[in-house]
Model the fold of this input.
Amino acid sequence: MVGGGQLARMTQPAAIALGVRFTVLAGSADEAAAQVVPSSTVADEKSQDDLRAFAAGCDVLTFDHEQVPFEHLRTLAAEGVVVRPGPDALLHAQDKGVMRSRLTRAGIPVPRHAVVSAPDDVRAFAAELVRSREAAPPADGSDLAVPVVLKTTRGGYDGKGVWVVTSLAHAGEPFREGAPVLAEELVAFRRELSAVVARSPSGQAVAYPVVESVQRDGVCVEVVAPAPGLPDDLAVEAQRIALTIAAELDVVGVLAVELFETVDGRILVNELAMRPHNTGHWTIDGAVTSQFENHLRAVLDLPLGSPAASAPYAVMVNVLGGDAPDVYSAYRHCMARDPALKIHWYGKELRPGRKVGHVTVCGDDVDDLRDRARHAAAHLRGDIDE
Ligand code: ADP
Done:
C-alpha cells in the first residue's frame, strides 16, 4: 500500500488475519502505518523510481490516499505492475472536474457545475444557475447572483480547497495556483450520506449499509450506520449509484461515494474515494467484514466478505487533536467508563484538528450510542474531563 497513514495502519490487522504479506511505502518511519508494519519502506511516493523499486517487491500495488501522481501510476501499469484501483479509475478520485463530467455522462446525479478558469466565469456560472432555476436575481445588489462553491480540482482533502463564495471579491483565492477550478451550486442538503462498496477485478461487488456522515469545517467528525430514518428507496438508490460508479469506472477495491441527501429528497454525488474511507471505519467493529479486509480481498481478487452490519446501529466519532494535556488519563477513563467502547488510536502526534483516532460503539439505541461515542471523543480531545 502506498501511503503510511491511518488507513494503511488499519489495513495491517486485516492482512494479518488473512495471512497476506502486507507492506507500505511511507514518507517517514514515524508515520502511522510505518510504526506497525515492520517491513515498511521509507521513500518518496512522488518519485517514479521510488515507486518502481517498491512495486518490484509486490504482487499488487494499492493506496491509502489519492495523491500519488497519475502519470507515474500509468507508467508502472504499462510496465506490468498490477495497480489496483487502476490509474484510469483513480483519476476520478484525484480530479474533481474529471469526476463530475464523467459521472454526468454516465447519468449519475451530481450538483450543477462547471470547470472555470477565472473569477469572471464564476459570475457567468452563478447567473446561469439562476436562469436554470428560474429564480429571481438577488435584490441586495451582490455581484454574484447566488452563492457558489469553488473547489480546486486536484489536491484538496478534508475541506481544504473548498470555498463558498457570495461575492466576486472572495473568488480570487481558488484561482491563485492558475489551475482550473470546479464551480458548483451550493446544494441545500438535509444531511450528508456515504455509500461504501467494494469491487473485485472479476466484477463481484458488495455494498455496505448507507451511513450518515456529519462534517464540520470540511472534516468528517461522526458517522452513524445505518443512516437513521433513511427511507429504503433512497438507501437502495444510494447503493445502486455507488455500485454503478464502481462498475462504470472499473474501480477495484473499496469505493466510498460521498452523497448529499437534498432537502427535496434527492441523492446527489459529491465526492469519490477509492480506498478505505473514514465513513467506513465503523465496519471494523460493526460489520461482518471490515472495509479494510474487503479492500484487501478485492485488490487480491479473492471472494468478498459479507458487508452486513453485526448490530442494529454503530456510531463512530473521530478523535481530533485538541490540547488535552493528559491524553493517557482520558484514554484510561474512557475504557473504564464504557467497556463496550472500541478505541482506535493512530499513533500520530497530536495537532489541533488532526485526526488522531476514532471511537466506535455498537448497539440498538442510536441516541445512547451517539452520546457515548461523543462523550469519549470529547474526553480524548480534552474538551471535557468527567
Ligand atoms: P474534500 O475533498 O476536501 O473532502 P468535498 O468536496 O468533499 O471536499 O467538500 C467538503 C465539504 O464541503 C462537504 O463534505 C460538504 O459539507 C461541503 N460541500 C462541498 N460541496 C458542496 C456543495 N456543492 N454544496 C454544499 N456543500 C458542499
Residues 111, 149, 151, 156-162, 184-187, 192, 215, 218, 258, 270-271 surround adenosine-5'-diphosphate (CB under 6 Å). Residues 178 and 186 are 23 Å apart (CA to CA). The chain has a mean pLDDT of 94.
